[in-house]
Amino acid sequence: MNVIIAGGGTGGHLFPGIAVAREIQRRKPGSKILFVGAEQGIETRIVPKEGFELRTLPVGGIKGLGIARQLRNLIGMVSGVFNARQILGQFNPDVVIGVGGYASFPMLSAAILGGYPRVIMEQNAIPGLANRVLGKWVNFAAVTDPRTESYFGRRAVVTGNPIRPEFKFIPAKHHVVPYTILIFGGSQGAHAINRAVIEALDSLADWKDRVRFVHQTGERQLDEVKRAYAAKGFAADVRTFFNDFHEQYAAADLIVSRSGATTVAEIKAAGRAAILVPFPFATDDHQTKNARAMSEEKAAILISNSDLNGLRLAGTIRELLTDPKQLTEIETNARRVAILDAETRIVDLVERAARV
Q1: Residue 63: is its pLDDT beyond 60?
Q2: Is residue 178 reached through a cis peptide bond, with omega within 30 degrees of 0 on the bond before it?
Q3: Digit-coded pLDDT (tens) for 304-350
Q4: Which residues of 223-234 are buried (b: 16+ CB within 10 A; e: fewer)?
Q5: By CB count within 10 A, which of 18, 168, 295, 348 is most buried?
Q6: What is the DSSP string of 260-285?
Q7: Could you give the 3-state DSSP secondary structure of residue 310?
Q8: What span, in angstroms and rounded, lies between the C-alpha atoms of 88 and 82?
Q9: What is the distance between the alpha carbons of residues 342 and 351, in angstroms, rounded to a whole number?
Q10: 176: burial class by Cβ within 10 Å (0-12, 13-18, 19+)?
């Protein structure tokens, strides 16, 4: 089977696509898989490391930009469709899968024009712009949230959000001092979370020997965050990226993060307690919806971005790590609501689309 997986830009789009690619390889050895991404997306460094071929398109975003950049990126989208048609002719896929992100739109548009079978994956409760526009012309829409079905009608199938298989086999954590707190804010880091963590260190000063931090941050704040931990005397491993992120989950007693769909799916599968701080400017505020769904299941603690500060964060960390019963309840509930076979369900749809 020849499959093109298009999109990326963030880990939330890219890693579910990689999980689906692995399932295709497992089910159909010898399958050829081509990723198509944006020239500036994280896929340029992740996909080759995962052992897959990558082609890129000169595309960028439209929403929230000045008119000049919007016009330039719109022109790039149009030329991207022509480039995508060339890729289709060269690779001749059995199916094109759109995972969301800038490159997904021109690739799926070209697939529609060329009559190739196509499947989209929508991780969020409210679909992104590309999937809302193109969803009427796909064979199937694999959605994570039942509330998303109404956007795609009969094409929608609730599959859950695929995650990398390593996250499914993380054992339960035996919580002992020193506790490990894993902090991250997505592909680009999170300034608000970084600031709150730095502020929280003073309130946790008496816990220097009881906690250690593993912190993924954006490049711009890397040195500042490192200096803050060192100045306050806390043990901390601070980096811009962890290749072995599932190992960091396994070591974590508590996670502090944004609440993108893929992050939430990984937290569920790993069965880890988390403090979720939704990114307030996410499209249609979908991160708040993701975090609220977890909070309602007592599977995570929700702190809004506007309520986040060092004192609040330090207090919540103390509360959770000194209450084993509550910590265990959150972990149990997180794993209870996980869907662990999402990529299997999606590849079922891919095979059905290929037979149409």
Answers
A1: no
A2: yes
A3: 999 999 999 999 999 999 999 999 999 999 999 999 999 999 999 99
A4: eebbebbeeeeb
A5: 18
A6: -HHHHHHHHHHT--EEE---TTSGGG
A7: helix
A8: 10
A9: 14
A10: exposed
